[in-house]
Amino acid sequence: MKRPARARVPQGGDLLQANTPRLARQGGLELTARRVLEGLYAGRHRSAAHGSSIDFAEHRPYQPGDELRTIDWRAFARTDRLLIRRFHDDRQLPLVMVVDHSASMAYGEPAKHDTALLIAAALGLLAIDQGDSVRLLGDDRQAPTADLGGAMGATRLMQVLESSRPVGACDLLAILRSAADSLTRRSLVVVVSDLLCEVAPLMPAAADLAARGHELAVIQVLDQTEVALPAEWGRVTMTDPEGREEPFSCDTADAQSAYDRAMAAHVGECRNLLAGVRADHLLMTTNQALAQVLGAWLERRRRR
Predict the structure, then answer these.
(1) Which residue spans of the chain are classified as CATH 3.40.50.410?
(2) What is the chain's Cα-based Rg?
(3) Please, where are the H alpha helices in the chain?
(4) pLDDT tens-digit profile of 126-153?
(5) Which CATH class is domain 6-49+91-302?
(6) How far from 261 is each of 87, 249, 257, CA to CA, in Å?
(7) Residue 184 — pLDDT band, cuts 50, 70, 90?
(8) What are phi and psi for residue 259, nearest 5 degrees?
(9) Cβ distance 179 to 202 under 8 Å?
(10) How far out from the chain centre does Cα 224 lie?
(11) Strand (E) or helix (H) holding 7
(12) What digits encode the pLDDT tens for the residues 218-233?
């Protein structure tokens, strides 16, 4: 399926604005993400591989934000060091995130890119609060970060996310290939993208990640008008923000049925292909309650 075009509504204003993300302009990304966190703590991004065992596994140094009940006070009495008891179902699973910064992510109200940044910020802060490390991967336009953790890691994560701009193209294939080659520790790799591209070429790299023991989850973010084309728009001009296709005019009432079938088929293909490489697929629209959708997904992962 070709990348679906974007509708430019003559009387409704330009729905595609490649500008600074609203959350970043307002300086409220971390604040908003921490509000989302309140609805996420029932779910965790832990691996399901360790089952429900509560056998002791190891100690690790205490970090700000760790729950006091996990401190091994006997070890503190012996060593004068604050150590956290780790169990088999609580071992670290580093979080590695990829945020699509292509021009199509600027579409919508709120922009898909704003939602993607908020997802990445919330998951990143959740991981850091749990004592895990977080890394952002990028392409030739956006350099990857080192492993981030603790209070300073959270600050750096917000800085990198807020500097991202939805312009040009994003080479998801190159990023996934780089992840498979560069990640030395078993990790949870989360890709946040609208996936308005040919998805099949991404699958060999996704399968390679799975073969190396990593867990892959793809959160597909779409605007509601992309999921179902509004017939009330009337006559519009369809444009491709990344310049791959020529603009064309159409009547949305006539195009709606075929468009909706094509988009449903594309989303279904994304879901089926990712399932074939043992990857999670989560579809969400920008008008959904972020904490509710992410929380349900994290709870499903926890129960595996």
Answers:
(1) 6-49+91-302
(2) 21
(3) 22-25, 29-37, 73-79, 112-129, 150-162, 172-182, 203-211, 224-227, 252-276, 290-302
(4) 998 888 899 999 876 676 788 888 888 8
(5) alpha beta
(6) 48, 19, 6
(7) confident
(8) -60, -50
(9) no
(10) 18
(11) strand 6-8
(12) 999 999 999 999 988 9
